[in-house]
């Protein structure tokens, strides 16, 4: 007698949704029909099968089916060819295939049609696996564990083939995860589908956790049941484990020495059998504590309806959907489109395995045991509260432009789509709103309609306020002589407008460069970031004059620092006139070689001796810094021969020279 022994029963023990659904379908059909048969035992549990036989339902093979029969397809599912054969026989068919198995059929049929080789983790002889392979139109192979997968890939030359890899719904989760890691390394091109039933995975996990805390485990279920055998294999890694089909088999187990005993059961085990095992075990160890499985089972089937707010724990994430545990027998599924309002967001970037997320029920399907959920609708509901608060607080929000529609754009912020009219979105007239698409923008809320969950905002209002604030700060803090970095906004013939951050300043032509140029666009381009110096500010008119020229770049200052009168230098002829030639000394500084200073003899035509581009050696004969004039002479460097000049002509030429130099300086 073990009066101090503690018994703990796994909450997930017993019928899974698919098995429970299939058994109920059979009993319902027996109530309204005769000649009800199941295509093979409805579940791997002799007690249930025997009870159905007593009520008139036989388990038959396909060859035994007759046209007058009502044939129930069990939860394991069947191959496509079986459906075709039943249609030929002409019998009535009731499909009790587990929805999770039916989903695998759909995946295999689609991927096989796309040319993929389908690899299935499971028991090749199991009816579920046979049914799955029966929906493949191309190659399919079965493996059990990493070694078989690795061998299969090598022996069949699958390294570069298109592959779809999935698992039997009752497959060992730990082995499956190991296989997935191996597949990602050896066949990275494979598309992996996580198809282990949530109830199976949860049952295995809970049983393993219970086994770690127990001295002994008892698994209740049929020995022909694949998931029951796998449950035993999971538990016996941690403690001694026994598989029994009913309470009478407890007599063959030595319970002495066990301070704690854990009980779990396969998906094919009815609640009444588990209850009987618990009662018998309690009598054996004189433990009167009982566990009501029927109540526990009903409690796990929590009512779920459209619009209900629920919490779920993320079980798996793939490119198309996310599976979550809702704490019920139903499987929660979040389609990728219901995860986020951002169409570019990948599911794995939004949620991770283990995350607990708030969700809204979109569509419960009790027949299939699947609940379609939405995360983005919860986010939107919470986000709209923030939108309303921003309206009250006149706060600036940040969002992304997701759509350009008739009359404006849609901006997503906190999961809510805010409409921005074109008049409030465009910075100027005839602006292409498509330039805003997928851009991050700042805006304010103009109005909200809580009943319709709609909001209208303005980008321009924020821009206008920011510009006004920037202008005020500029005129308060900026003075003549300050150097500021700005962006070239526009270019005209007379100068360049520069955005100084809320204030536009003008750089006139004369203040752009010390060098000669034909058009301001030769100096800067729209969009250039340039440093400019404040030349003048008029606070009343808000006009700002700028200069782009830097004193350190003033060519005359450079010339004065490096050249002097009497110095012999080399210069390049840049223009020819009737009275002489202008030669560039440095960039921005030219000197005049008067016609009388070109040669020792009389020169009637300068072009006969010099041409543009010639490099000549000259002597600086005069520097007028005030008027910025420089006189150069080639003649001063030639041997002294007696020249013959017309003094009157020379005087006229000197007058022309003076005028030309003044024009050149200007």
What does this structure look like?
The C terminus is likely disordered. The N and C termini lie far apart (119 Å). Strand 18 and strand 19 form a beta hairpin. The chain has seven domains: 109 residues, Cobalt-precorrin-4 Transmethylase, domain 1; 79 residues, 3-Layer(aba) Sandwich (Rossmann fold), CATH 3.40.50; 98 residues, Cobalt-precorrin-4 Transmethylase, domain 1 (3-Layer(aba) Sandwich); 66 residues, OB fold (Dihydrolipoamide Acetyltransferase, E2P), CATH 2.40.50.140; 85 residues, OB fold (Dihydrolipoamide Acetyltransferase, E2P) (Beta Barrel); 76 residues, OB fold (Dihydrolipoamide Acetyltransferase, E2P), CATH 2.40.50; 111 residues, Nucleic acid-binding proteins (OB fold (Dihydrolipoamide Acetyltransferase, E2P), Beta Barrel). By secondary structure, the protein is an alpha/beta fold.
Annotated CATH topology of the largest domain: OB fold (Dihydrolipoamide Acetyltransferase, E2P)
State the fourth-level CATH superfamily of the largest domain: Nucleic acid-binding proteins
Count of helix runs: 17
Give the low-confidence spans: 287-291, 296-301, 644-649, 662-666
Structural class: alpha/beta
What average pLDDT do the residues reach? 85
End-to-end separation in angstroms reads 119 Å
Q: What labels describe this entry?
A:
666 residues, alpha/beta, Cobalt-precorrin-4 Transmethylase, domain 1, Rossmann fold, 7 domains, five-stranded mixed β-barrel, five-stranded antiparallel β-sheet, 17 helices, elongated, disordered C terminus
């Amino acid at each position: 007698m073990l009066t101090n022994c503690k018994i703990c029963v796994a909450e997930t023990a017993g019928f899974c949704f698919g098995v429970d659904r299939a058994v109920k379908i059979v009993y319902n059909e027996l109530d309204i029909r005769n000649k009800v048969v199941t295509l093979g035992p409805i579940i791997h549990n002799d007690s249930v099968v025997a009870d159905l036989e007593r009520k008139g339902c036989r388990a038959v093979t396909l060859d035994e089916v007759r046209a007058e029969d009502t044939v129930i397809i069990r939860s394991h599912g069947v191959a496509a060819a079986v459906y075709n054969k039943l249609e030929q026989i002409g019998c009535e068919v009731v499909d009790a295939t587990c929805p999770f198995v039916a989903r695998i059929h759909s995946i295999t049929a689609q991927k096989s049609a796309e040319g993929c080789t389908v690899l299935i983790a499971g028991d090749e002889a199991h009816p579920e696996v046979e049914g799955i392979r029966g929906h493949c139109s191309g190659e399919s192979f079965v493996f059990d564990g990493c070694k078989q997968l690795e061998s299969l890939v090598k022996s069949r030359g699958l390294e570069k083939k298109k592959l779809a890899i999935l698992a039997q719904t009752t497959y060992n989760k730990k082995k499956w995860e190991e296989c997935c890691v191996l597949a990602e390394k050896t066949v990275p091109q494979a598309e992996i589908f996580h198809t282990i039933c949530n109830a199976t995975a949860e049952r295995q996990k809970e049983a393993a956790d219970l086994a770690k805390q127990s001295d002994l485990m008892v698994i209740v279920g049929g020995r022909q049941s694949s998931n029951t055998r796998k449950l035993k294999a999971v538990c016996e890694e941690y403690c001694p484990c026994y598989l029994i089909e009913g309470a009478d088999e407890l007599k063959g187990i030595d319970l002495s020495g066990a301070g704690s005993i854990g009980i779990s059961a396969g998906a094919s085990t009815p609640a009444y059998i588990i209850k009987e095992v618990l009662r018998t075990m309690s009598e054996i160890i004189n433990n009167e504590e009982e566990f009501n499985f029927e109540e526990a089972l009903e409690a796990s089937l929590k009512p779920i309806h459209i619009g209900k707010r629920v919490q779920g724990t993320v079980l798996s994430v793939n490119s198309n959907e996310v599976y979550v545990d809702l704490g019920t027998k139903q499987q929660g599924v979040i389609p990728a489109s219901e995860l986020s309002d951002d169409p570019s967001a990948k599911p794995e970037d939004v949620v991770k395995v283990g995350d607990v997320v708030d969700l809204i029920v979109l569509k419960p399907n009790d027949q299939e045991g699947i609940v379609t959920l939405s995360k983005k609708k919860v986010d939107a509901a919470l986000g709209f509260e923030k939108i309303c608060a921003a309206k009250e607080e006149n706060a600036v929000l940040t969002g992304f432009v997701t759509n350009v529609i008739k009359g404006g754009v849609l901006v997503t912020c906190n999961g809510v789509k805010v409409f921005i009219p074109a008049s409030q979105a465009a910075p100027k007239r005839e602006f292409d709103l498509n330039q805003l698409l997928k851009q991050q923008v700042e805006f304010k809320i103009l109005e909200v309609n809580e009943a319709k969950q709609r909001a209208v905002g303005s980008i321009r209002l924020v821009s206008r306020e920011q510009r006004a604030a920037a202008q005020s700060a500029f005129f308060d803090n900026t003075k003549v002589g300050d150097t500021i970095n700005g962006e070239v906004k526009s270019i005209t013939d007379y100068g360049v407008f520069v955005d100084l951050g809320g204030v536009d300043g003008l750089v006139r032509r004369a203040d752009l460069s010390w060098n000669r140029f034909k058009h301001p666009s030769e100096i800067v381009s729209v969009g250039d970031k340039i440093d400019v110096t404040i030349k003048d500010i008029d606070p009343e008119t808000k006009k700002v004059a700028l200069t782009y020229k830097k004193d350190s770049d003033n060519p005359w200052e450079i010339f004065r620092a490096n050249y002097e009168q009497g110095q012999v230098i080399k210069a390049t002829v840049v223009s020819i006139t009737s009275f002489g030639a202008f030669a560039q000394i440095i960039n921005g500084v030219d000197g005049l070689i008067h016609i009388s200073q070109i040669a020792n003899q009389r020169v009637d035509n300068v072009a006969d001796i010099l041409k543009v581009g010639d490099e000549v050696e000259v002597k600086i004969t005069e520097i007028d810094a005030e008027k910025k004039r420089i006189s150069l002479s080639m003649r001063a460097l030639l041997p002294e021969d007696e020249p013959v000049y017309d003094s009157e002509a020379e005087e006229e030429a000197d007058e022309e020279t003076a005028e030309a130099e003044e024009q050149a300086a200007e």
